[in-house]
């Protein structure tokens, strides 16, 4: 066991993957000598060389498109997108090609490309540096999406993503990159697509993922002081979503609040609310409530605290749910 | 590479471009110098304000002043400019108040100025996107009949700025295709400051960037981007060409980003101090000052007055920045759509009610 910030845990996971499998390659803008703008790839080019840790031209469509070709040739490219909203020049390659090639070739061609996306707000940046576009990708069949919230998951899930024969997008909670947590280098936490109950409780289920898991845990603690016993679930996987774990929890608590930074309109919370309502209709004591961003372009950073769900907004939803 | 003033401040003759600067008065030349000094002072203030926590981020233009003042001063008021996010000098020549530029970096707006007021578009952060907008705008200019009329008050050119890194983007290459296909009145200005964050321009291209347009049918010229006179002359000639309806052109301004990419960057991780030293000996302001002083266009009194003016401007920018209030939270709902939208209205009302529900005023005010 060792305490590591999330960014360093991903770095350790990438290092292990590069050591274990010579077919693993890293690609992206500024990932070489600089180590990426968040230093997640720090030191890797020095140790594995420019052929394995590839500084690319400034072209996202080019990065993902060539990663697809490398994967077809038998490599396992791990691509870094510098910031969430800079993925859109590559959207076409991801959606029309990467997600569909396995299907198009009746299973003969595999495209084990991993796309790392530092996402989410709360870091005081200008436009395009704070978005949560996960729902746009969750809607696309053929892709898998995961989002670790802590260092141990970060270390293990990046490696599991690289081992997966499907394309995997890993949404990394950039505002938590410097948050430290224990990493167990020996024992894997298991299936990357399983949700974890990170705080057991009996009164209400609060589901979150990525950057908001930490916030949800603080909200649960605050609610405890008022005698409310909240169960917090870290979804970990955004496509597929582990509805088993969620439904089991909601059947016990009768209440579900789901939180994400992305706008609630057509967000992942809407899908979860619909499916849990189907599965748990007779156990639910209140409608499933969502806490999320507004139907707006992400605002200038001086307003982001009003845009982003925080502990108070979560507690407000908890109160509304329990008031039914 | 077109150069008219050397790094030592010597004027070199240029058969092709000398006539384009022939009518510049001493006053004009002193104006170029003044512009560069003021822009550098504002830029340094931006970096300082970021260090003091007043700005979330700042993208320094240090070293690129000659490119930006030279190109900006060569434009006509009806030309329309599409910048990236580092065109503080061009903005200055177009009359955008420097303090206005700080809003986006402070985090109080996504733009902050009316692009139609000075024909200077808002900054674009997504690399290369704006080059296509420039071509589309130019196609509109064509359709409005404002190209090649011979009437200087009517003929319009469009300028698209982008970086050496941006030259790799699909959008930029598509902009070159479209502009050539439709003979659109666009002047592309590639500011080759040698680096795209940590990646050298050799990572983006194997040929000099001014030749990037050739395969698309767009002629290009490389200019010493640290020479304000050459930048002015070549831009002026190119804008005339573009306005006349003769088609798009590409200028590569060969310059250097002396500071960090942004205040979030650490250039010591990827470039040598020897390189920075070599380029600082080609500083655009030093060289022009030498030239003006040597030929008697500028005296000590003038230089001092410019420094004083720069001090005053910096103080004004600083005060304006520190005094820039956080916007009212409800304003974020104001311009997502042009017409009313029920979901936005509902969410605006929800937030107002939610904020009002806090008895603790400091929380409701978002302080
Ligand atoms: C599509 C996209 N990808 C990545 C980024 C992040 N980014 C911001 S500036 C920059 C480098 C740009 O280099 P260049 O075009 O040479 O312009 P310079 O900043 O050097 O003036 C990068 C990679 C971005 N803004 N947009």
UniProtKB/TrEMBL annotation, chain A:
Residues 4-179 form the Transketolase-like pyrimidine-binding domain. The keyword Transferase does not apply. Its cofactor is thiamine diphosphate. It is an enzyme of class 1 (oxidoreductase). The keyword Oxidoreductase applies. Gene3D superfamilies: 3.40.50.920, 3.40.50.970. GO terms for molecular function: oxidoreductase activity. Its EC number is 1.2.4.-. InterPro entries: THDP-binding (IPR029061), Transketo_C/PFOR_II (IPR009014), Transketolase-like_Pyr-bd (IPR005475), Transketolase_C (IPR033248). Keywords: Oxidoreductase, Thiamine pyrophosphate. This is Alpha-ketoacid dehydrogenase subunit beta. It comes from Saxibacter everestensis. The lineage of its organism: Bacteria, Bacillati, Actinomycetota, Actinomycetes, Micrococcales.
Automatic annotation (TrEMBL), chain B:
Its cofactor is thiamine diphosphate. Keywords: Oxidoreductase, Pyruvate, Thiamine pyrophosphate. It comes from the Bacteria. Pfam families: E1_dh (PF00676). SUPFAM superfamilies: Thiamin diphosphate-binding fold (THDP-binding). InterPro entries: Alpha-ketoacid_DH_E1_comp, DH_E1, PdhA/BkdA, THDP-binding. Residues 34-312 form the Dehydrogenase E1 component domain. NCBIfam families: PDH_E1_alph_x. This is Pyruvate dehydrogenase (Acetyl-transferring) E1 component subunit alpha. The gene is pdhA.
